[in-house]
């Protein structure tokens, strides 16, 4: 399977049904971009709505900085069991129904948070939403990758990331608008907003197709063929994709039966994690290191904390008006949407690795600039107007660099390189690492900047992103290759490593 682009797909057309399916599934990402941290762009990024709502929740419920950090961090903690459950659930019940389940859980959690008469109830609702976030972080990129053809996989698999950033912008805009409402009502409107689109997603997903790769894993070859005919441009392309998928699952490529008996272990995903971690082959080991690595550097690079606590960062430069703070954060959302949109067209043209390297390099320079500026401000006795403008401008540039590369590529790359038998549960492990590192960063950021100054914290993030830059340079390129080719790509590198 050395083909770079699947046979029959040389006409270069984007399949409309595949595009529509991924766009619909991407609603889940827009919802969580509005209401939760995704670093999927972080596919993490952080909670747009929460970045503003925390300001008002703290005032309304009279909670301290420690409680604010716990509220922000517990969502990520509760996402961990969601991540692990989502992988097995999607292997057992399917990708489509897992998206539906995550939407239901998220709706319930959002409503409970909006009700939140006390910190305890708010925290419970937040934890429920966290579980839904864990589900969504796994299933959106998996579904998108498995529906997409190789020639447009970067474009289509990054659509959830674009949706996250659109949701992020909507969250910032809603913060600015709802900030004008009475204190007790405003933040509740912020947190309940995503419930309606999540309900719409449930209806949409009932109408959409299941992942053809999951169907083949269940032995439902006939159904998979029908789906592939819908998401492929030609019958030849559909048959070629089906042949490759059957080969990976262990079904005779020349078998013409619509229903094939496959081992229960394959259908349910049982034992996948044990096989992934216990004496994996050299290519699989390198895939695992690459997938986990990109997720770890995504979070420890600091973008999550910067987005979540952006009002505090801008406040350090001398902005005191809450309305102006909310307006300044809207610019972050605008920057993310613009560069996420640009990124989706670059992924399949310049490649994953180039975007990662450029993105990391730009972040290092931007973080150094912010560190120098904020250090000057912190040791100055006067509020400098230039510091406000410079900090906001460089923060926007920092977000732009992160969004054009590391943000979307992390999710695209990790979802496509994991072999089919490990994809959902393996991505669950990656996202668990993502959430753990995110929790560490967002729950410790206030304490860190109080200990080493705000400027010092940015110097620390710059050093971490420098290490990330080195790591990204070691990764093989995957643009244009079929999902079934990934072990071959990483196997070549592994063979070189042994020489």
Automatic annotation (TrEMBL):
InterPro entries: MFS_dom, MFS_sugar_transport-like, MFS_trans_sf, Myo-inositol_Transporter, Sugar/inositol_transpt, Sugar_transporter_CS. Keywords: Membrane, Sugar transport, Symport, Transmembrane, Transmembrane helix, Transport. One of its GO terms (molecular function) is symporter activity. Residues 28-480 form the Major facilitator superfamily (MFS) profile domain. PROSITE patterns: MFS (PS50850), SUGAR_TRANSPORT_1 (PS00216), SUGAR_TRANSPORT_2 (PS00217). SUPFAM superfamilies: MFS general substrate transporter. The keyword Lipid metabolism does not apply. It is found in: Membrane. It is a multi-pass membrane protein. It comes from the Eukaryota. GO terms for cellular component: membrane. The chain crosses the membrane at residues 17-35, 66-85, 97-115, 121-143, 155-173, 185-209, 287-310, 325-347, 354-377, 383-414, 426-446, 452-473. Belongs to the major facilitator superfamily. Sugar transporter (TC 2.A.1.1) family. This is Major facilitator superfamily (MFS) profile domain-containing protein.
